[in-house]
Amino acid sequence: MRLRSLRVANQPQLMVIPLIDIMFFLLVFFMMSTLYMVEQHTIPVNLPQAASVQQDKPSSINITVMDNGSVMFNQEEIPLNLLAKRVSLELGKQPDNIFVLRGDKQVPYGQVIAVLDELKLAGAHRVSVAAEKAR
User: Fold this and answer.
1) Domain count within the chain
2) Can you tell me whether residue 58 is helix, strand or coil?
3) Predicted model pTM
4) Residue 16 included in any domain
5) pLDDT by position in tens, the chain (length 135)
6) Which of 12, 59, 95, 102 could hold 64 in an S-S bridge, CB 3.0 to 4.6 Å?
7) φ, ψ for residue 51 (rounded to 5)?
8) Distance between CA atoms of 76 and 43, rounded to whole angstroms?
9) Residue ranges making up the domain that contains 109
10) Is 124 within the bounds of a domain?
11) Strands 132-133, 49-50: parallel, antiparallel or unpaired by DSSP?
12) Rounded to 5 degrees, what angle do the CA atoms 68, 69, 71 make?
C-alpha cells in the first residue's frame, strides 16, 4: 500500500501557465510576421523627399504622374482630360475618398499642378501629395 501512494505522489503535473505564455508568444509572432507580408500594389516612382511625411491610408486612390508626363489612376493609364470624369465617378461611389497625388521629381511642376487642378475641379476635397521621408 505504501508503494502505491508513493507512485501517485510522483506523477508529473501539467503546468498550464507556461502553455498560455507560449500561446500568447505564438499569437504575437504570427501577427507581427503577417504585417511584413503585405504587398503594396503601387507603381514605382522616384518621389521627392520631405520632412513631414505621413503614411497614406489603405483606402486611398493613387494618382501618379510618371517621369514621362503620363497620368496613372491607381494602376491604369488615363489621359489628363478624362481624369476629372474618373474622379467624379469615384466620388459618386464613395464621397469621402482620399486621393494621393504622387509626382515623380523629374516631372515639371506645372504638370503636377495641372493634375491637382483637375482633381479640384472634379470635386475632390481630400487630396494629399506623396513624398519620401527625408533622411
Assistant:
1) 2
2) coil
3) 0.57
4) yes
5) 556 665 666 777 778 888 999 999 999 999 888 877 766 666 777 878 887 776 544 468 889 998 888 899 988 899 988 888 998 988 888 888 889 998 888 888 888 899 999 889 888 888 888 888 777
6) 102
7) -80, -25
8) 10
9) 49-133
10) yes
11) parallel
12) 120
